[in-house]
Amino acid sequence: MRVVIVGNGPAAACAIEAFRSVDKESDLIVLSDEEYPTYAPNCMENVIRGDISDKALFYKGGWEFYERFRVDLRLKKEVVRIDNRRKVVITKDGEEISYDRCLLAAGASAFVPPIPGVELERITTAKTLDDARRIREWLTSGKVKKALIVGAGPIGVEDAETLWHLGVDVSVVEIFDRVLPRMLDPQMGRVYGEALQKETGIRVFLEHQVVAFHGKKRVEAVEIRPRGSDRSLFLDVDMVIISTGVRPRTYLVEGTDIEIHMDRKLGRPIGGILVDEYQRTSDPNVFAAGDIASGIDAWGNHRWIALFPPAQQSGYVAGFNLAGKKVRNTGLVDYNAVKTRTVTAGSGGIFEDAEEEVLVERGPYLVKVFLKEGKVRGYQFVGVPKRPRLNPGNGLLRLINGRIKTWEEKVLFDRGLGLEASGVLYHFFLRLGRSMDRLTKRAVEDLTLRALANPALDLPLYL
Fold first, then answer.
1. Band of pLDDT at residue 400, cut at 50, 70 and 90
2. Per CATH, the architecture of 343-453 is what?
C-alpha cells in the first residue's frame, strides 16, 4: 500500500507514529512545502526571542524521526490540489503523486487582510518558522525600535510581549472590545488586558482598525481609526506583525466531491474539510486531520478547531485508521493558552450556550466556569501577577534544579509553568465530564484539581 501525507506539522507527525506502530511495510510519503522537520508551532515567540533549543523546537527528533519511521520525506513540495477520482495529489510544479490512501494535514495559512500598503517591507505574519526567523533577523539588526501588532489574539499578544521584553516600543490594534476576544469573555478579557498593559509598556488600541500602511519601500507608519469613525491616528513603526487569524487550506479539495464544513443556511464555509469520528472525509480513502479539518468535538458537534493539542489528537486517530484500524476520536476540545510571562490566560470548551457561570478568585488566579445542565461546558482562566511565593516542593520547579529562587527569575525563565491550573481544568472538567458540586468548587478555589483528577498528589505551584 502507498500512503501519501500532505503536510508536515503536528497532525502529520502524530499520524506517522500511529501508522508505523501498525504498518511497518507500506510506503509512506510526506510532502511538505517547508524545508524543516516538523516543529512546535506554538513556540514561534521563543524563536523570536532566541531562547529555544533545536531539540525543543524540532520536538519529534528532527531528521532522525523520518529515518526511524521509514518516511519518504519530500521537502519544498507544495501540494496545490488533490484529484481523488484518479487518486493523485498534484504539486505546484505539476508533479502527480499517486496514493492508495491519503491524509490531508496541510494545516491552515495566516490570513492577511487586503489593507492598502500591506505589500511594504517589514510587514509579516508570525505563523511559520520562516516568519519567526525573519522577525528575529530584523530585531537583531538593531533597526526595529517601534512595532505594531495587528490583532490581539493569542499569537498577537504573545508576540507583543516578546517584542516588549526585547526592548521594542509595541502597540497592538484590535477591532473587538477586548484582547483575546475569541478566548475570553468581556469580563475576563478586560481583566487580562488591563493587567497586561499595567505590567508592561504595551499600548492596546481596542475597537480600532488598521486602514492603511504607509511608507516608500518599507513600512514607516500605520493609519488606524476607531471603529465607526473617519478620524485617523498615525503611528510611527519600523515593523508590523499581522496576527488576524488563519484559514484552513481547503483549496486542496476544490473541484472534488470531498465535503467542506458549510453553513447550509448561509451557503458559506465555516470551517475545514469535514471528517467523521475516524478522521475520514466523504471519500473513504482520504483522511484529514489538524487545522485543515473540521472534526467532531467532545459534545458531538462538527467544529473547526485550529489548535496544537487537537491537531495531535486527530493526527494519531488518522494514522491508526490509515493503517486499517478502526480507532474513534473521543472528541476534540478547543483548549488554548497564552504563554505570556507577565499575565497568563487559558480557556477551553464552549461558552456561548452556558446556562450558569461560577467565578472563583483566589490569590493571583481568576477562574470562570461555564455550566450547562449542571455539567461543565467550558472554563476561562486568568493569572495576574500578585507576586506569590514559589513552592519549592513543586515537581515542575524541581526539574529546573533550583535555578529559580525569586519571582523576578521566575518571570525570566518561565516557559508556561503558570498555566498549570489552566491545563488541570481542561483535563478534569471537560474530559471527565464533572459537575460543579460543592467539593469541585472547593477544589477550584484551593487549586487542587490535579489531585482529584489523578490519585497521585501533585503539589501546587504557589504557596
1. very low
2. 2-Layer Sandwich (3.30)
